[in-house]
TrEMBL record:
Keyword Methyltransferase found: yes
Entry GO MF terms: methyltransferase activity
Source organism per UniProt: Aphis craccivora
Region (Disordered): 84-103
Protein name in the entry: mRNA cap guanine-N7 methyltransferase
Length: 233
């Protein structure tokens, strides 16, 4: 089953973004998601794309929107790379990064909605506490330019093996999932989830979005939810 056709194609969106390119950046930095320019562009597109989704599409450089806009404005472009990888899951603790973290949370929700549709199934399972301890995240401090930032980091490779084994053992899907990235929150009050992760089957391209709402208490299991297509046939 194919997903719904987009209300408007990416070329049409970019053409309007380009019309307003001089209003999108402030000191070469993309204006915030609350700036009225995004509503203005959304209105220009007959509200077929929501202001927040417009912002996210440029913020994440979807369809190379930000790259092309900065090139046309002769602004040096540093590609926004998601800080979550198979080796590290990160979440900033700095107050200066609150707005960026809020944006990342909205991006997580948008990414999850791309996977969650009528063709997917919700799967639930749990990881025993003793297994969770094998990949329990720890806070590591990194220096970035002139400031320090703290991140919550899973143990390399271990988290994906344990979660994948538990998921496939419980639900018997034939997929061969490759886990691409994850993100662990430091402050749950500023995040939608305790952690999220994404994967894709290398055989059939089936996409997976998984999450856990809360970190387990000592001795309690880690409960995990996964949305993906049921490929058991």
């Amino acid at each position: 089953k194919r997903g719904r056709k987009p209300a408007i194609d990416s070329n049409s969106i970019f053409n309007v973004l380009e019309e307003y390119k001089n209003e999108l950046f402030d000191n070469e930095k993309l204006k915030s998601n609350t700036h009225p320019i995004w509503t203005k562009i959304s209105e220009r597109l007959n509200f077929k794309v929501k202001p927040l989704n417009l912002f996210i599409s440029v913020y994440k450089d979807l369809h190379h929107f930000q790259t092309k806009l900065k090139e046309s404005l002769n602004i040096e472009h540093t590609c926004i790379v998601e800080q979550t990888t198979d080796e590290e899951s990160v979440s900033s603790e700095s107050d200066e990064d609150t707005e960026e973290e809020n944006i990342d949370n909205r991006v997580d929700l948008l990414d999850s909605r791309r996977v969650i549709d009528d063709s997917t199934t919700l799967f639930n399972f749990y990881i025993p506490f003793e297994n969770y301890l094998e990949f329990k995240p720890s806070i590591i401090e990194y220096r970035q330019k002139h400031k320090r930032r703290k991140y919550n980091v899973f143990k390399k490779n271990i988290w994906s093996n344990i979660i994948n084994d538990a998921f496939l053992s419980e639900h018997k899907l034939p997929c061969n999932f490759i886990y691409k990235r994850n993100k662990v929150s430091i402050d749950k009050s500023r995040s939608n989830y305790f952690f999220t992760f994404h994967a894709k089957c290398k055989d059939c391209d089936n996409k997976l979005f998984g999450w856990s709402d809360n970190e387990p208490n000592d001795g309690d299991p880690l409960y995990i939810n996964i949305r993906t297509k049921n490929t058991k046939g």
